[in-house]
Amino acid sequence: MLASQSATPNVHAQFGWLVPDAKQAAAKFLEAGLTLLESLSSPSSADGFGPIERGLSTLLRTDAETRRSSLEIPLPESVTAKRLARVISGLLVNLARPY
87 with 3: CB under 8 angstroms? Predict the structure, then answer.
């Protein structure tokens, strides 16, 4: 069983991530990636990388103890540690499968 098959259809529909085939999943993935890139970019300006740096700075936090920067991305409620682990595990199993 694939990792993506373990959730019920009602849960998929509730969070809007039910995709019946790989083409639709890839399209949603590309759309999300483009939305991220659009949020980090703006029309050319005199300060070069300034708009990108400002966009990325909204995702960076400084750890109080180590003073090191870390990337912080707010996740929707539908993304849980259990779901991520299940999907990554399923992906690795499928990649290891001989064809």
Answer: yes
In the beta sheet, which residues pair with residue 61? 70
Q: What is the pLDDT of residues 12-37, one digit of tens each?
A: 455 555 556 777 887 888 888 888 88
Q: Which residues of 44-83 are buried (b: 16+ CB within 10 A; e: fewer)?
A: eeeeeeeeeeebeeeeeeeeeeeeeeeeeeeeeeeeeeee
Angle at CA of residue 66, ends 60 and 68, nearest 5°: 30
Query: Is the model's pTM score more than 0.85?
Result: no
**Distance between CA atoms of residues 85 and 52, nearest Å:** 31
* Residues 5, 11 contacting (CB under 8 angstroms): no
